[in-house]
Amino acid sequence: MGVDSGLGTFRGLNAGVWQPLKAMQIDFSEMSCPDVFDEDPYAAWAFWKFRHDAYTQSKPHEGYELLAGFGEQMRHKCFSITSNIDGHWARTAGIGEERAYEMHGALTHMQAQDGSGRIWPTDPAVMAALPVPQWDLAPGEHVEVLCKGTWQSDRSQAVGEDGAVIVKYDADGVGGPVDDVSGVRRPNGPDLCRVDGRASLPVDERGSPARPNVLMFGDGGFQADRIDEQDARYRRLLHALGKDTKLVVVEVGAGTAVPTVRMRCEELVKSHKGPATLVRINLDQSFVPAANTVPAHCAKYLPPRKYIGVGGMGALEAIRKLDGLVRKARAAGAGPLAG
User: Fold this and answer.
1) Cα dihedral 263/264/269/273 (nearest 10)
2) Confidence at 81, pLDDT banded by 50, 70, 90
3) 3-state SS class at 161
């Protein structure tokens, strides 16, 4: 959903790239672990500052407004459940904090690193004050690399053609990427992979180390109070949906690598007491369950289920086309969202 707002994904064609990660040959998800805050907090905060700036300084694209607009026509409006941590649904008119369940938390809030205390809104001024040098290295430029705790200034070390990976070749042209890189700098310059080591890192009101209130990989210290409240509001909405409620679940960009949202959407359609439709928008994983999953003699006693896969296009393009179909149907005198 965030790609059309200029944001990268964890995997696939639109995977987000932070250049230091490529230099250190670390996977995006590996850096998104709470252990990094214990082992290398200055690198952790450089990474999360990059993500915070990308997410909070970008604007939710038109698709958010269009989907919220569909909901405004409905008796029970629209509610967003999302695994995205960018806070874009909470910034969307008609959704906001009260109608969004950010199941993995959001970079808009912080918590104590040890999971104690309260959750508080992220202060943009605190994030802006973190001094992270700009990665502006050019291919072929000589650099020093930090390997196993020691800075190495071998003149044969240089930035690769992609502007990120550090390579080393001998006089005969034999070599390749440098292994075990944990830092990169121009000769005697600042480490481009970390917040300046002289800077103070974010803390809570007690002075304890802070971290984003985001559910990371292998995260046993996530403070869930905020999303528990969101989940409770979401469940109250579901409880209010009766057999006469026609439910439409529009799932956008939920892949199979981490299928949390995908499975949640399918379960919503299967468990709803009334008619339900799943519209799955996914560039390359738009396949949906077979509609006829029960015997014909039983199906006539069950509310109808529909599964629609929309593939081969991004979120915004697909939502705009759906909006066009809805407007056409309404102009022809059909119901609010018929067609």
Assistant:
1) 130
2) very high
3) coil
Pair 138, 163: CB distance under 8 Å: yes
pLDDT digits (tens, 9 = 90+) for 164-176: 999 999 888 889 9
> Taking the complete model, does pTM exceed 0.85, yes or no?
yes
SS (H, E, C) 184-215: EECCCCCCCCCCCCCCCCCECCCCCEEEEEEC
Residues 263 and 316: their CA atoms lie apart, in Å, by 22
In this prediction, residue 136 carries a pLDDT of 94
For tokens 């439409």, the residue is: 248
Over residues 14-22, mean pLDDT? 75
How far, in Å, CA of 316 to CA of 322, rounded?
10
Residue 282 resides in a domain: no
Residue 185 is assigned to a structural domain of this protein: yes
- The total number of structural domains in the chain stands at 1
Rg (alpha carbons) of the chain, rounded to whole number: 24
Instruction: Tell me the two tokens of residue 173.
Output: 């042209």
Residue 207: strand pairing partners: none
Residue 182: give the domain boundaries: 133-193
The letter for the amino acid at 295 is: P
Look up residue 306 and give its amino acid.
Answer: K
Q: Is residue 209 part of a domain?
A: no
Residue 311 is assigned to a structural domain of this protein: no
14 pLDDT above the threshold of 80: no
Please work out, in degrees rounded to the nearest 5, the angle formed at the alpha carbon of residue 336 by the alpha carbons of 65 and 338.
Answer: 105
The CA–CA distances, whole Å, from 235 to 9, 228, 230, 238, 269 equal 28, 10, 9, 5, 15
- Counting every residue written for the chain, the total comes to 339
Q: Is the dihedral of CA 193, 195, 197, 201 positive or negative?
A: negative
What amino acid is encoded at 115 in this protein? G
Residues 6+ apart with CB under 8 A from 258: 10, 83
Nearest residue to 126 via CA among 65, 237, 212, 191: 212
